[in-house]
Design a protein that fits this description.
3-stranded antiparallel beta sheet, binds pyridoxal-5'-phosphate
């Protein structure tokens, strides 16, 4: 008989995982997806300069990476015209969200997010023994007013907001986010996840104010820079807040291949602009495909499009399933009424050719059921 060694918290935690990867789905199906347009990855790929830098660094991988991420941090700071003391680099936004939760939330602590929003924040909160207050979307937007109200009511330490939002692709203007920042309770930190900000209109980001200890901004190399597999992200914030990440972060977490790649990617802003244009064209095509099927696509500020399947969640789940059965990898929102949509990531021309052919068939299959 084994001794029950787990903590009460771990025993209480559900065994669910926040993401089932396409690889797991492929293993279950016994075949590969024909189009991988479900995880908001960037099919246009990283800058060739980033690839070359990573290839070079691969031979040097016997060395640990620089635990201070010095060169990358310096380049990020210069890019945003802030000091290196205002930047912490980590293993993607996902890891940085975990460190943030550890910094601000005690066991039993309360946080607030939107019901159906990006789930990783929730995963960390629950995993550290915290509680989540979930605020419904308003229209298809995260409800910044209700989020603030809930924060005041429950005296929360952290408010999570993704802008642009995933899974809907909607965004608040920077001025509207700024109103939220100005109204933040003194006791609350705004966890502002800007994973898609490079795709968004210029007015989507509030001004960077690194003097405000109540706001943390999160950026990533996974989406616009097309380096999701390298796991590099960063947070921007007030100097003392940023310093506190050193108490909880994994100092050798960011491997040197990733550091070298991100540094080269950041320096190739021309590649980034090209990619953003390609993504925008792909999103426009997805909207056209929706229209050709008599459906509406939500306007997007990100690298994916939510297509309203024109009925309820049960119907959209059938469409989703039919696409999956046809080896097209997509995802969909989890919560009503947003679950009336399927979410399609900006794909290559070939990916979208596959989707264009498969979508009407999937809709027909769903209608027959
Ligand atoms: C994709 C995504 C992330 C993941 O970022 P990583 O840097 O790859 O961890 C974070 N937030 C949102 C809203 C996302 O959609």
């Amino acid at each position: 008989m084994s001794i029950d060694k787990f903590t009460p918290l771990v025993k209480r935690l559900p065994t669910t995982v926040p993401f089932v990867g396409p690889e797991a789905q492929e293993r279950a199906m016994g075949r590969l997806f024909r189009a991988r347009i479900g995880a908001n990855e960037n099919v246009f790929g990283p800058s060739p300069k980033a690839v070359a830098a990573m290839q070079k660094a691969a031979g040097e991988v016997w060395m640990y990476g620089d635990p201070e991420n010095h060169d990358l941090k310096q380049a990020i700071a210069a890019h945003h015209n802030i000091k290196t003391e205002n930047v912490v680099v980590g293993e993607g936004i996902d890891a940085l969200l975990g460190y943030t939760v550890r910094m601000y939330m005690e066991e039993g602590g309360i946080t607030v997010t939107s019901l159906g929003a990006y789930p990783t924040f929730n995963y960390h909160v629950t995993g550290h023994g915290g509680e989540l207050v979930m605020v419904p979307y308003v229209g298809d937007f995260e409800d910044r007013v209700a989020l603030l109200e809930a924060a005041r009511k429950h005296h929360v330490r952290m408010i999570y907001l993704a802008n642009p939002d995933n899974p809907m692709g909607t965004y608040w203007k920077g001025s509207q986010v700024q109103e939220m920042i100005d109204a933040l309770p003194e006791e609350s930190v705004l966890v502002l996840d800007e994973a898609y900000i490079e795709f968004a209109p210029d007015d989507a980001a509030p001004p960077l104010d690194v003097s405000n200890p109540n706001v943390l901004r999160y950026r990533t190399f996974s989406k616009a820079y097309a380096m999701a597999g390298a796991r590099v992200g960063y947070a921007i914030g007030e100097e003392n807040v940023i310093k506190s990440f050193d108490k909880v972060r994994d100092h050798f977490g960011l491997n040197r291949v990733a550091q070298a790649g991100a540094l080269a990617a950041l320096k190739d802003q021309e590649w980034l602009s090209n990619v953003v244009e390609n993504v925008s064209a792909a999103c426009a095509r997805i909207a056209k495909i929706a229209e050709a099927n008599g459906l509406e696509a939500l306007p997007t500020a990100a690298n994916f499009v939510a297509i309203d399947c024109g009925a309820d969640g049960d119907f959209a789940r059938k469409v989703y399933q039919a696409l999956t059965d046809d080896a097209i990898f997509v995802r969909m929102p989890a919560v009503a009424p947003q679950d009336r949509c399927v979410r399609i990531s900006a794909g290559s021309v070939q990916d979208l050719d596959c989707f264009e052919a498969a979508f009407p068939k999937a809709l027909a299959t769903a209608k027959e059921q």
